[in-house]
Design brief:
Length: 149
Amino acid sequence: MSDRPDAEHQRPDGTDDKTVEALGKVSEALEAIEIARGHLYTFHRLSGTADLTLGEGVEQLREAGHTELADLIDRELVGRNVLDGRWTFQVMEEYDDGYYADFKRLEKQARDELVGGRRHLYEAEMKEDRRTHGLPHHTARPGVTPGAE
């Protein structure tokens, strides 16, 4: 097996450097969106955990005889929307169905139209440039014998 990138990680004939670089930037932006989405899920999980924990704290305040304060916190915070009309699951759904879905669709459309859907061409070419050919742990892909051509 040749120690070259597979066809899916080689630019199609006629694809220029500027196109590969531009698609690399679009891919980089998508990676940032994936991280942002992960942080939104973290926000979702932590907000839900905080609400449940707060509910436990309110019950403990009641048990400790602080009924008026417990009632106030329960009424004003427990189960409250984090944004106007929304719990965090609704924020996630709106993000996923709107901005995130459009971003993924348009990034894929750009790849499909310009390079036949191939992903990570910029990174694949960077790997070819940076790796030490012929050494173990520097092969182009899994299952290749170092130095094979």
